[in-house]
Amino acid sequence: MRKMLSEKLPSEKLGQIKDTFSTSFRLLKLIWSVDHWLFIGTFASAIIPAIIPFINIYIYKLVIDLVVLAVSTDTAFDPSKLYSLIGFRVATYFIQEVAFRTQGFLERLYWTKFPIYLNHIVFKKVSGLDMQYFENSKFRDLLEKVRDSSAWKPQQLVDHIFMGLQSLVQLLIAFAAIARLNWFLVILVASVAIPEFINQTRQSKVSWGVWSQNSPLRKRFWYLSGLLQHSWTIKEVKIFRLAEKFLDELKSIQTKFYKDTAKIAKQNYLLNLVFNGLSTAVFIGVEVFVIFEALAKRITIGDINFYTGVVSNFQNGLGGLFRNMSGIFENSLYVKSIFEVLDTEPAIKMNEKAVKVEFKNPPKIEFKNVDFAYPETDKRILKNFSLTINPGEKVALVGENGAGKTTLMKLLARFYDVTAGEILIDGINIKDLDLDSWYKYFGVLFQDFNKYEHTAKENIGFGRTHENVELKEIIGAAGQAGAHSMIEKFDAGYEQMLGKTFEGGVDLSGGQWQKIALARAFLRNAPVLVLDEPTAAIDARAEAEIFNKVERLSKNKTVIIISHRFSTVRNADKIYVVENGRVVESGSHKELMKTDGQYAALFKIQAKGYQ
């Protein structure tokens, strides 16, 4: 077993190196695409500081040798040469400082500009992914990693790459200079730097492992933080005295983070002390060697300073290279998560010859022998399900929670593909439809509708965001949903900011938010209108008024209502009772009551509650 593991390690390390290189290269390509000149300027300003110190210490060597020569011999001293050397040395300091300042300036520009681009492409990618990804805990963990790392890890990775290149240039120049003096010195310095690099890489892997393993805990942390901060959660938290429980859990999560981090930090600290001690010993040893070489008159007095500086730069360059390589490796693990999201392929594949539909009238909708199980599960939500909805028909789906009613609407919106069977829209398989064109004819109010903290006008206008919608149309939709009288009472009317997150916003009740969402669905004016629990938070009188308007305004529309309220569905042309993924009863309200089956029993139970 041990032999098998040892044989596997080289391939694993090779894979890690390959991943690190690939991630780093892709990030640099992204940055290059944002601004070529900023990239070149940042690169140049990072390399110049690697070269200048060698020029500087060489000039200083010449100065020392010039002074020693003048003091120890009767040779006439030429001050102009000394002044020139000092002038060159001043120039090197100036160029070095300009390079540092330029690097800081360009990096500030870059890391203001690049995150805008990165956030845009990540959000665009995420918004284009299918529903199943957002209902998958592993993918949500991946998004959590991206949220934690996207703001600063790319910058750290690029900084390490540029600083690594700076260290490499510094190392190569120093290597050439030291090798001329004595090859053994190169080996001596490297003997300390290489183990340090191996240690840094190991520390990076350990840090990544802790960060990756704790991703679900970080997700839990932000969830609990939200419970203690949001207006729609804090009321119940206060009443049930849940704050202390959540605070204890938050503290335990943070304590675990601290213990994991402290353990790694302690190990790193002790090992770094050891390597710092070894580095100091090597530096002093090289310095002594150079002094004895000068005493033996094999090098000049100026060379003592020069080679001491070169060795210091060699040591710094080698250590810096390894440290930056370790930093590249560590940060690439985090940045890799960003590219994993960007590389995620949609599960719903569009047909290359997708049909763009244009319906003058509502289409015929057919579910034919549909089976469906959610990804990564074996439980079938729908089983050989068949249902036909004729153009302009008002149908209702009723049944207990988990029966599959909302799943049907997700399939009709093609958030998921059926496991077996097919869904036909005017005889065309939904998989062959162009979804953008299909969604134009598809209006929906989901049970878990969004509460957009925008103005009332924008909230409703989102129903037709790709069109120039006039205010009178928005007012009309609000009137249909019973929201107009409510909006008129706001201080700013239709310009009123909704929600309490932003300044000047007003909070709404659940029923008021539902009227806004219903108005958004009505504004869409689509031939197919799906209402999933459309009046769950609305009082009985408002519900009756809304559905009278729905009946009156949707004569030429197909309306699909999902509801637990039987008063809501009784006027539908046809009611389907769904149980365990199948239609067990169907008919009008009158027909189903006459049958005296499951629908009638449930209706009587609800009716009794109103008596």
TrEMBL record:
GO terms for cellular component: plasma membrane. GO terms for molecular function: ABC-type oligopeptide transporter activity; ATP binding; ATP hydrolysis activity. Keywords: ATP-binding, Cell membrane, Membrane, Nucleotide-binding, Transmembrane, Transmembrane helix, Transport. Residues 365-605 form the ABC transporter domain. Pfam families: ABC_tran (PF00005). It is a multi-pass membrane protein. SUPFAM superfamilies: ABC transporter transmembrane region, P-loop containing nucleoside triphosphate hydrolases. InterPro entries: AAA+_ATPase, ABC1_TM_dom, ABC1_TM_sf, ABC_transporter-like_ATP-bd, ABC_transporter-like_CS, P-loop_NTPase, Type_1_exporter. It comes from the Bacteria. The chain crosses the membrane at residues 37-59, 171-194, 269-292. Its main location: membrane. It is found in: Cell membrane. Residues 37-330 form the ABC transmembrane type-1 domain. This is ABC transporter domain-containing protein.
